[in-house]
Design brief:
Elements lengths: L4 E7 L2 E6 L2 E6 L3 H11 L3 E6 L9 H13 L2 E3 L4 H20 L10 H21 L5 E5 L6 H8 L4 E5 L7 H4 L5 H8 L4 E4 L2 H15 L7 E4 L2 E7 L6 H13 L5 H12 L4 E8 L6 H14 L7 E8 L6 H21 L7 E5 L4 H10 L2 E4 L8 H9 L6 E5 L12 E3 L4 H13 L2 H17 L2 H24 L1
Parallel strand pairs: 1-4, 1-6, 4-5, 6-7, 7-8, 8-10, 11-12, 11-14, 12-13, 14-15, 15-16
Antiparallel strand pairs: 2-3, 9-10
The structure holds adenosine-5'-diphosphate and 6-O-phosphono-alpha-D-glucopyranose.
């Protein structure tokens, strides 16, 4: 049997919904799932994670159907009960770690029972991994929902290579030190042979927390944990460039149009020099959606000459709807969209087209290829793959990317219009600059970014991580035999 990589994440790339016994499968949304999916499809791998439904809310026949559907996709579903999801996923993962790691300290809600559930669910993942593990396999754990898992695996199987990649920021020591269970979390992560982050800053913050909280000896790229050396490095995640680029080319050659494309074309024909601004995210308070809308309002007030000439297509996919902050945000966004449309609309024009749902890949491509500007304004974002997807889809290299400095991806995109998402005026000026930017300038900016994403695509990212994991594991073996 060939050696495989076991990919482990809270969520599988397939998201199941059950309606009256009928099992429907949708692709999972979010950078982790969309990015890792293409790696998984093209490699010898098995993906272990949650399929999107509570295990105690379905019957055995449905569970069996889900298992079969998962096996087809080389996936193993981890059954999580309603209570486990409440406490481990909505609770500790998304009401402590997510807000804190994105610097929303005031949203962190510490609850001992959620922490206990987090530990138990990490153990459950460890058991399922061990059941599926063969000699020579490697394990690649992903993201903040599973921070304790690396050490849990190491305790049972010190011989196995374990890599860990964090898809969200790692906050500064001053933030991280506020977590009541900070030592256990760091020790859990340090069970990995290699820890990867999107940027050097996140890596540095992690090493500084280890050195100051655990007092372990650290170097630029490594940490001494007893007799083990744990490697730490940055690997900025990328996208399947060819998939987006080729889909954009195909889309432009296609004759049939979707109703969305027809409406976009009608708008452009009706107002010949009109421009479309696009934003795509999960509805999350880290994404700066409210700030973006307020900046648009400021812009339309300040520059009335753009009335009827610009439209924001804002796509927000529902996310973590059981967490109160997401519910409040949804309300705030509904109100802001209503206010802006109410204030500026004319009989033939509304400034904001708001879609609160997930769109199929083809329609995402339509939006990427039809939009003159991408307006991405996160308050804090581990990476932001949408920025890369937009640039990859611009086959003629036109289009302007307005991008928050607070996104990990900004480190790789000096040629975008970088903004501070808390500065309305700066964002409004960036909108004006983007809408008036000559085509030659757009092309010269995007050329550089596109070249980089094409060369450093998601395959190269995974290859680099795996090579570094092999090197770290080699070091481990040398230490063991010494
Ligand atoms: P995050 O991982 O925080 O959600 P990213 O920007 O890194 O942020 O990744 C988001 C991913 O989800 C992208 O691949 C994007 O194409 C996809 N996505 C976001 N919103 C939608 C939507 N409404 N419909 C379909 N896909 C979406
Ligand atoms: C981000 C996180 C992922 C998560 C995704 C979607 O990308 O880094 O771990 O899967 O958001 O969020 P959800 O809670 O729906 O899985």
């Amino acid at each position: 049997m060939k050696n495989k990589t076991i990919i482990v994440s809270n969520r599988l790339p397939l998201n199941v919904s059950v309606e009256q016994g009928d099992v429907k499968v949708f692709p999972s949304v979010g950078g982790l799932a969309t990015g890792m999916k293409s790696i998984h499809q093209n490699s010898e791998s098995l993906w272990i994670g949650w399929a999107g439904v509570a295990s105690d809310e379905i019957d055995e026949i449905t569970a069996e159907k889900i298992k079969k559907l998962s096996i087809k996709e080389k996936c193993v579903p981890v059954p999580l009960t309603h209570q486990e999801l409440e406490e481990y996923y909505f609770g500790f993962s998304n009401r402590v770690l997510w807000p804190l790691f994105h610097y929303f300290m005031e949203y962190a809600d510490y609850d001992e029972t959620h922490w206990e559930a987090y530990k138990k669910v990490n153990e459950k993942f460890a058991e399922i991994i061990l059941e599926n593990l063969n000699e020579g396999d490697k394990i690649w754990v992903h993201d903040y929902q599973l921070l304790l898992l690396p050490q849990m695996i190491k305790d049972k199987r010190p011989d196995i290579s374990v890599g860990f990649f964090q898809h969200i920021p790692f906050p500064s020591y001053e933030i991280f030190r506020t977590v009541p269970w900070r030592e256990e979390i760091l020790k859990g992560m340090l069970g990995a042979d290699l820890l990867g982050f999107h940027t050097y800053d996140y890596e540095r913050h992690f090493i500084s927390s280890v050195s100051r909280i655990l007092r372990y000896e650290t170097n630029i790229n490594s940490i001494h944990v007893g007799s083990r050396t744990v490697k730490v490095d940055s690997f900025p995640m990328s996208i399947d460039y060819e998939k987006f680029h080729n889909a954009a080319i195909e889309h432009q050659l296609k004759n049939e149009k979707t109703s969305l494309q027809i409406r976009i074309d009608q708008y452009k024909e009706l107002v010949p020099d009109s421009k479309l601004i696009l934003s795509i995210d999960r509805l999350d308070y880290t994404k700066g959606i409210a700030q973006r809308l307020k900046a648009l309002e400021y812009f339309l007030d300040k520059y009335p000459q753009f009335t009827e000439k610009v439209r924001l297509i804002m796509l927000a996919v529902p996310s973590r709807e059981e967490v109160p902050q997401y519910q409040h945000l949804k309300k705030e966004i509904d109100e802001l969209v209503g206010r802006i449309n109410g204030k500026f609309s004319t009989p033939t024009w509304t400034p904001v087209w708001y879609f609160y749902r997930s769109l199929p890949f083809e329609e995402l491509i339509e939006l990427y290829t039809s939009s003159d500007v991408a307006f991405l304004t996160p308050i804090r974002d581990g990476m932001n793959l949408v920025a890369k997807e937009y640039i990859a889809s611009r086959t003629d290299q036109t289009g302007v990317l307005i991008l928050s400095e607070m996104a990990g991806v900004a480190h790789e995109m000096n040629d975008a219009l970088l903004i501070n998402p808390n500065d309305d005026k700066q964002m409004s000026e960036a909108l004006k600059q983007a809408l008036e930017m000559p085509l030659e300038e757009q092309i010269s900016r995007n050329k550089i970014i596109q070249k980089r994403i094409k060369r450093y695509n998601v395959d190269k990212w995974a290859e680099d991580f795996m090579e570094a994991l092999d090197a770290a594991s080699q070091l481990k073996e040398e230490n063991l035999t010494r």
